[in-house]
Design a protein that fits this description.
By secondary structure, the chain is mainly alpha-helical. It contains 13 helices and two strands; from the N terminus they run H-H-H-H-E-E-H-H-H-H-H-H-H-H-H. It binds geranylgeranyl diphosphate. The site of geranylgeranyl diphosphate has 17 residues, from helix 4, helix 8, helix 9 and helix 10.
């Protein structure tokens, strides 16, 4: 299957589950439930798809992991809602729509972000039949989303005015890379993969997480692309993509969708 068709079919799969998992619009507090729904609209679903593809590469079954992958997307959506707030990026638009606070007000957007984060862990507590696995996944995800991961990267990003290469690398690894790497690792964990395979898929995720942010910087003429120029930034991203692919190439055919995803992330235009 061509990567575009693959992404479309997996996005449909994730979206169906995702919107079924959030509270009904008729339930109170209606405004927050509306804001949550709004925050989940659009989006490429890269992280849940990476989770599903990693699980498959490690011999797992996608259907066992749909809830886990939705929990990951909820954390991503919360981070975008909070990142758009006036006290952070102050963005009016997200995914081609009004940002959550522009449509529902700042207070409701904060609540919607908090609710998505809470809902994610509520979901994880019973996401699979294996309670020990649910707990391990929650630990992994909370680490990646917390101060040693995404929040850590965001904090350094907003507190440093002049960013050198090392600072940018720290920000990229933590703000963007941590959740992407955790998505891959969690997919492998859920497939009950051997430690060696979990490590390989985590490594793949770490490389590809960096690539994701470098490409984002190239598209926005920011960060590393601004510092070293878009051509050098792309060459660097290409090198990292090759490293990502070679860390899982020993898995042969099973690694194919992930390698195609890596190329898609490197060459994406949005
Ligand atoms: C506010 C807790 C908190 C964290 C913010 C991840 C993050 C940290 C902010 C997101 C802002 C941003 C634009 C980061 C750059 C890379 C990135 C995560 C882009 C958006 O991800 P995509 O392209 O978005 O996967 P879609 O819309 O496709 O889901």
């Amino acid at each position: 299957m061509h990567i575009k068709e693959y992404l479309k079919s997996k996005k449909n799969l994730v979206d169906k589950e995702l919107f079924a998992l959030i509270p009904d619009l008729k339930e109170r507090p209606k405004i927050v439930h509306k804001a949550i729904r709004h925050a989940l609209k659009g989006g490429k679903r890269v992280r849940p798809i990476l989770c599903l593809a990693s699980s498959k590469a490690a011999g797992g079954r996608e259907k066992d992991l749909l809830k886990v992958s939705c929990a990951i997307e909820m954390i991503h959506a919360y981070s975008l809602v909070h990142d758009d707030l006036p006290s952070m990026d102050n963005a009016d638009y997200r995914r081609g729509l009004l940002s959550c606070h522009k449509k529902f007000g700042v207070a409701n957007a904060i609540l919607a972000g908090d609710a998505l984060l809470t809902l994610s862990f509520n979901l994880l507590s019973g996401a699979t039949k294996d309670l020990a696995l649910n707990s391990k996944v929650a630990k992994e995800l909370s680490y990646a989303a917390g101060t040693f991961g995404m929040i850590g990267g965001q904090a350094i990003d907003i507190s440093s005015s002049e960013k050198d290469l090392l600072t940018l690398e720290y920000i990229n690894i933590h703000k963007t890379g941590a959740l992407i790497a955790a998505s891959c690792k969690i997919g492998a964990m859920a497939a009950k993969a051997k430690p060696k395979d979990i490590s390989a898929l985590f490594k793949f995720g770490e490389y590809i997480g960096l690539v994701f942010q470098i490409v984002d910087d190239i598209l926005d003429s920011e960060g590393i692309a601004k510092l070293i120029g878009p051509k050098r930034a792309y060459e660097y991203a290409k090198e990292l993509t090759e490293k990502a692919k070679s860390s899982i190439s020993y898995q042969g055919k099973r690694a194919r969708p992930l390698c195609d995803l890596a190329d898609f992330i490197l060459n994406r235009k949005h």
